[in-house]
Specification:
304 residues; single chain; alpha/beta; 8-stranded mixed sheet
Length: 304
């Protein structure tokens, strides 16, 4: 342990690897494990939440999933499967001593996929769940991108983005530049790129594309990787723990679908960020954090 940092060994079929965690705050009554997006991104873009969560009296664990920047990065494509990541989260939970009386799992974007999958496999260990900026159906996410988001884009730029994807040229610098100008600054983080916080830029710079591309696809403009057919819409009713679903007006994810998700969950509720996008924790920070903190304070009063 150093400044709250702890490397946790995770066993896999390919061997044992270490993942990075860092504890902030001290409250055995309510402890949050944060699952970052990507997949293959890092905890860094979640750092803008740290001060308010700690000041509000919560214990927080930042965590880089296996393959991400601060953790081991094995060169083994067989490791990048949803079930293996869920097993990893369970091993991290056990190592940190989190349990039914105190454990809240927070997942943002891809982390929301993991959060839903973890709850379906291990909800007996959860006190609460937060699913932030992630729809329960990737087919519905792709439909929203095609039906709502793409028609509002510059159609010449969109055509070039699609051409580069079709030709397998997504490593061309022009691909990322087009996405940033015509999509990301409108629906991922609603600020000019030069105003993005350093922690967000670092998380993007550190993304492991050997994980991101096979699972998500080459961009946030829909999904085309292993997640293509992922759909847990019909399973939401099985998640019985208190669950907060968080969405935003300008998100890449359909806020109407996110509201619907909260209605399907037996103990679900929805929180909306009217000025936010996919990283609403930054571009609608005050509204986002107030909803999250209020939910966590209410959870503190719930008996396990």
């Amino acid at each position: 342990m150093s400044d709250g940092v702890r490397m946790i060994p995770v066993e896999t079929a390919s061997g044992t690897f270490d993942v990075w965690t860092r504890k902030a705050g001290d409250n055995p009554r309510l402890r949050l494990l944060l699952l970052h997006g990507g997949p293959g991104a890092t905890h860094e873009y979640l750092l803008p939440m740290e001060q308010e969560l700690v000041d509000s009296g919560f214990e927080v664990y930042f965590y880089d999933q296996l393959g991400s920047h601060f953790s081991d990065q094995p060169d083994d494509p067989s490791l990048w499967e949803i079930d293996r990541f869920v097993d990893e989260v369970e091993q991290v939970r056990v190592a940190l001593g989190l349990g039914r009386d105190d454990f809240v799992l927070y997942g943002q974007s891809w982390g929301g996929v993991l959060g839903i999958e973890y709850a379906l496999a291990h909800q007996e260990h959860l006190k609460g769940l937060v699913v932030s900026n992630m729809m329960a159906s990737v087919p519905a996410y792709n439909d929203y991108a095609e039906r709502v988001l793409m028609p509002t884009m510059d159609q010449t730029a969109l055509a070039e983005i699609k051409r580069l994807e079709a030709d397998g040229e997504t490593d061309d610098p022009s691909y990322e530049a087009l996405l940033i100008e015509h999509h990301y600054v409108h629906h991922v983080l609603r600020r000019p790129l030069e105003e993005w916080p350093a922690s967000v830029l670092e998380s993007f710079d550190h993304i492991n594309k050997d994980i991101y591309v096979p699972i998500q696809g080459p961009s946030e403009l829909g999904a085309s990787g292993k997640l293509l057919h992922w759909d847990r819409s019909e399973d939401l009713r099985r998640i019985e723990v208190p669950t907060l679903v968080m969405g935003a007006e300008h998100d890449t994810m359909d806020p109407a679908h996110l509201r619907w998700m909260a209605e399907q969950l037996p103990r679900g509720r929805y929180h909306h960020s009217p000025e936010g996008s996919h990283i609403a924790l930054v571009d609608d920070h005050e509204t986002y954090m107030s909803g999250l903190v209020d939910f966590l304070h209410e959870l503190e009063k719930v008996d396990a």
